[in-house]
Amino acid sequence: MNKTEADAAFAQAIEHQQAGRLAQAQALYEQIMAAQPTYLHVPHLLGVIVSQQGNWFLARRLIEGALALQANDTDALANLGWVLVNLGLHDKAIARCDQALALAPGHARAHLTRGMALRLAGRHEEALAAFEQALVLNPALADAMHCRGQALHALGRHAEALESFEWVLQHQPRHAEAWNNRGASLMLQDRADEARASFEQALQCLAAYPEALFNLGSALQLERRYEEALALYEQALQLRPNYPEALMHRAFALQALRRSPHDCVASLDRALALRPGYFEALNGRANVLGQMGQYAEALENYDEALRMKPGFHEALLNRGHALREMGRLEEAAVSYREAIRCGGDAQAGLFALAAMGQEAAPPVAPQDYIVSLFDGYADKFDEHLVGKLQYQAHERLCDALLPLVAQLPQPGPHDVLDLGCGTGLCAPLLAPVARSMTGVDLSPGMLDAARKRGLYTTLACQDVTQFLQGGDSLFSLVISTDVFIYIGDLDPVFAGVRARMHAGGLFGFSVESCEGADFVLQATRRYAQSAGYIRRLAATHGFEVLQLAPSAIRKEHGQDLPGFIAILKAL
Fold first, then answer.
1. Domain 372-570 classification at class level
2. Burial, 453: exposed, middle or buried (Cβ in 10 Å; 0-12, 13-18, 19+)?
3. Helices (H), 309-413
4. pLDDT at site 2
5. DSSP, res 525
6. What is d(CA 154, CA 181) in angstroms, rounded to the nearest whole number?
7. What is the overall mean pLDDT for the chain?
8. What percent of the chain has pLDDT above 70?
9. Of 119, 280, 431, 453, which is most buried, counting CB atoms within 10 Å of its CB?
10. Looking at the chain, which residues constitute the CATH 3.40.50.150 domain(s)?
11. 159-162 contacts: CB < 8 A, separation 24 or more?
């Protein structure tokens, strides 16, 4: 091929490339290079096509070859910068873009590529300035507007980021990445429903989009839709097996679903193998091991995590729990106090210390502790409590209560209040005498399980004392099983129950029992009350004690756990 033939082939290749016929253009460029190795622009344009195929190493070699022939080619310098960005060579990319801009300050693409390199290097303010300069030069440059949104998102300026993504989508409605990033900005503005819809729109534009699958899964996981979230993480991992964030969140979804803890740990181990020093995965691994009862290994992980993030109060608190379970109480106390000092949940830390006898017991357990204990446990709660722990308090209470219902002064059926209803174990037993049934519980997960029974007229996610003080409707039957183990001081509860009961109504409940003191916080972090305390509260608040019978509440370590089944009548 002589020079004249090469010129004709070059013109034809340009036409193919501009029309998107890249294979034909590539074949012609390769023929020209073979015959005329120093033909200007051919290595550069061939490098651009090769880069679009993802062959970044060859693209770099070709474009650098083009620059050896013509060092001041600003387009080649800018395109080389883009290739270097994709090779992770951010500083080199910035240097090449700077060369292009020294020659042509108005080169919008060079500003855009420079901004991309700066953003990926974590220099978000400088990146934002570069993108905005690109937009000054070319206001219609959608890539620059999209990247501007990414930089604003990284800077925490989420409302402005959202405006950028929405501008892109007005001009390019099928821009999957903009839909995905829009969703991420919406999530951080607590607009979860809109965010979820945005992630779904991204997947309509591009079904095989691992990041959007992961983000949609994360949004669903926040709504406790763990099965759906898990399925999305699995899809993301099919597309990108080495996706550490998806592996970590997959483990957390499995943990919430009470699936195999060994599978949880394996998923976290894969994430850590891909990203050594992945703090969130390491801390999560320690939490899973703690739930498995593997406290020594959990402790090792907590210590490693705390070397990465000294003073991370959540790890310090959970480290204290592991040490307590290992019987290393003094060390546990030190870890709890350090968690409090570092800004951790003081109520949780002091409650744990009180259960070890190192602080005064609070009147009630912290609400966050109760919710975290039961939320996500609901699906397996009945199986574990009734099956494994042989829990019978609900049956024994209802067996004692139902024969007395016929003596109520109000004609049946009756309005029933189930305080701390949990999954609704008492509901089927009381449904035959109930006109309405109101359930109250702090745990949304437990209420979801109770709702599935279809027996409650009303369910309220609320502290029982707050519920009692916040209304004026009256009930003929009030029950509470296995709830007062999280409330030591029952005086406000008794006052609230009496205020919400018809005269002659029945108040039935179970407690764990202690001797001497009114109530004690046990090492198990559960409260127990004495019979004398229950009788005194009844007299103070206008109840007659019909029954206060010793009863085994459940099994613990294979032994019956002593308690009382109490039936009181409102005077």
1. alpha beta
2. middle
3. 313-325, 329-341, 346-355, 367-374, 378-382, 393-405
4. 87
5. S
6. 11
7. 93
8. 97
9. 119
10. 372-570
11. 159/185, 159/189, 161/185, 162/186, 162/189
Where in the chain are all domains bearing CATH 1.25.40.10? 3-201+212-217, 279-360
Whether 81 and 96 have beta carbons less than 8 Å apart is answered as yes
Q: Which residues pair with 441 in a beta bridge?
A: 461
140-159 in b/e form (b: 16+ CB < 10 A) is: ebbbbbbbbbbbbbeeebbe
- The bridge status of strand 434-441 relative to strand 414-419 is parallel
- Which pLDDT belongs to residue 377? 58
**What's the confidence (pLDDT) of residue 391?**
65
Q: How far apart are CA 422 and CA 418, in angstroms?
A: 9
Q: How far apart are CA 161 and CA 181, in angstroms?
A: 9
Buried b (16+ CB within 10 A) or exposed e, 336-348: bbbbbeeebbebb
pLDDT for residue 385: 55
Low-confidence ranges of the chain (pLDDT < 70): 375-391
* CA proximity to 425, closest of 365, 479, 463: 479
Predicted pLDDT at 567: 97
Give the pLDDT of residue 200.
98
Radius of gyration of the chain (CA): 33
Burial class (CB in 10 A: 0-12, 13-18, 19+), 37: exposed
The string of pLDDT tens digits covering residues 130-156 is: 999 999 999 999 999 999 999 999 999
Tokens of 273: 């193998």
pTM over 0.85: no
HSE-up (13 A, CA, CB side) for residue 501: 27
The two tokens of residue 359 are 């602080």
DSSP labels, 403-471 = HHHTT-SSPSSEEEEEET-TTTTTHHHHGGGEEEEEEEES-HHHHHHHHHT---SEEEES-HHHHHHT-
pLDDT at 516: 86
With the C-alpha atoms ordered 353, 356, 357, 363, is the resulting torsion angle positive or negative? Answer: positive
The per-residue b/e assignment along 234-265, b for 16 or more CB within 10 angstroms, e otherwise, is ebbbeeeeebbbbbbbbbbbbbbbbeebeebb
The DSSP secondary structure of 295-317, one letter per residue, reads: HHHHHHHHHHHHHHSTT-HHHHH
Rounded to the nearest angstrom, the gap between the alpha carbon of residue 404 and the centroid of all alpha carbons in its chain is 47
CA 152 to chain centre: 23
Is there a cis peptide before residue 366, judged by omega within 30 degrees of 0?
no
Q: Return the residue matching tokens 């693209």.
A: 59
Query: Looking at the domain covering 3-201+212-217, what would its CATH class be?
Result: mainly alpha
Half-sphere exposure of 119 (CA within 13 A, CB side): 25
CA distances to 22, 399, 416, 432, 460 from 436, rounded to whole Å, are 72, 20, 6, 11, 14
Q: Where are the alpha helices (DSSP H) in 87-225?
A: 90-103, 108-120, 124-137, 142-154, 158-171, 176-187, 192-205, 210-222
pLDDT number for residue 218: 97
- The second-level CATH assignment, the architecture, of 279-360 is Alpha Horseshoe (1.25)
- Structure tokens that stand for 447 in this block: 């209420």
